[in-house]
Amino acid sequence: MMPNSSERQYASGGQVFAIYFRHVRKYPVLLGLVALGAIGIQIADLAAPWYLRRFFNLLASSAPEAGAIPELLGLVAAIAAIYLAGWVVRRLQEASIILLESRVMTDLFSSTFEYLMGHSYNFFISRFAGSLTHRVNKFARAFEVMFDAIALQFFPTLLFVGGAVTVLFMRNHALGLALGAWAAVFVAFQLYVAKLRQPVRAARAEADTRVTASLADAISNHATIMLFSGKRFEHGLFNAVVEVWRKATLRSWIADNAIWSGIGLFMIAIEIGLLWGATVFWGRGLLEIGDFVLIQAYLLTTFDRLLSINRELRRFFDAFADSSEMAHILGEPHRVPDAPNARPLAVREGAIRFSRVNFSFGAAEPVLEDFDLAVRGGERIALVGSSGAGKSTITKLLLRMFDIKEGAIAIDGQSIADVTQDSLRAAISFVPQEPILFHRTLMENIRYGRRKATDEEVIEAAKKAHCHEFISRLPLGYGTYVGERGIKLSGGERQRVAIARAILKNAPILVLDEATSSLDSRSEALIQDALEALMRGKTAVVIAHRLSTIQKADRIVVMDKGRVVAEGTHQELLERAGLYRELWSIQAGGFADEPVAEAGAEEIEGQKDEGIEDEKEPPTRAQAK
Length: 625
What we know:
Shape: elongated
Number of domains: 2
Strand content: 5-15%
Distance between the termini: 44 Å
CATH superfamily of the largest domain: ABC transporter type 1, transmembrane domain
Number of helices: 20
Structural class: alpha/beta
CATH architecture of the largest domain: Up-down Bundle
Radius of gyration: 36 Å
């Protein structure tokens, strides 16, 4: 799956800075200390050369025996005091920056995670998980780079250059104006080339994200690569992505080199120009020797700051390109939001109603058309039909993972579009066909169904789901980590853990989407017993391709091409000609290796009590009929 076009969009500078400023303004005291620190440091850096000017003027105009030593030493002491004061202010400013950035970055991680998790199910299945992870990390860390650049480079340099121009203007109007004009042209040049270079930086950031996404995709599918001998093929795909990154990075670095060349010429021009002008004015008696020291000190400091700024600009705009990717996602509205006045769902009976529901995935063919279905509170219904009939889509719409195009879905008369999504999903226990677990312990994964449950309650649920047996055999038991997405467990073990989680949740509505598809026949017989107890007194919607698992349903709903084509009990549907009897005949006739005869509670209890694990023979075609 490749990222869609929206994933390659970027936010504007205003959007990025607006997001960062919302978080920074929560700490006005720390922000004020950072600004005052920058002002204090620049005052010290401007004052020290002024005293050096007086020092060298005194040296040039006095002989050693003239008694100027005490005054010279006084100037040295003043310069030392200025440098020491600047050092203290700098330390205080750095402490303020550390506190501010750590708090803001924590807030950014938290708020970004919260907003990202609010996006719809479709948002996540359309994007690489590795790419999103990379963007969240880059967004918070980009703030550190950008704030450092502003607080330690851009703002201080602006203050210093402004102060230097003012001091030089006081000494000589022409020199001050010359330095001011040069600084203005230099800044305009920097902004102009930075704007020209931004698409190159954006292309590099996108290439960097693609490298991360490609690497994450290959790592997460390592087993598939190994089983299909795809190592060379994947290596070729990854090299192609890295080659795109190399070209984008090379273009970025070449542009940087061209900018550095222009900066070098700017610096040569201003230094030669100011020294030439100062020499002319000195010859006219308008400047003193110390003024040369002042000019040179200011120029050297200005050059150092501007060189640092240029180096910082590359990091700044790289960080901006990184942050703008995530800022675009943060600016993208949630596609399945809660209604403005959404209220919690109040479940009384658990009755479910689909009324004239129309739904399709984007511009694709409709999955459901004028779909109607009513489920009574406490009723157990089964949805059957060929693949693509829309069965799993119904469960996703009930959980509001997607919003319907037309029609309504209600629980106990309350439209699910008008209630909070958290309360809706809290009322439904869902066991998917392919359960995905957290890379956490088995205890934590099961407890996720009810996060305040005790260890004893978790273990009791595991016993009911028949996963306590295999967990007890593990060296670390319930403290065993299951690996990313539960990869360390077999498919059947993952499903039993998911069922235990649903048992622990004990919600009034139960949705099972092929919940026993990964279980062997013996385990399924035991799990069916647990599910029978779990469904008692609850509204249950069960999807199963193996028709043997849904014979006890109160009602079986047969679907085809997004519509209900038949409904009734198992026996009623077998007595009619139609899709259900056709599917049953195929499975009962030997095309499926699963048992289809109804397993009574006595048989299951006998298996558990006597340890019998033999599979029951499937019925003959005549018995099935």
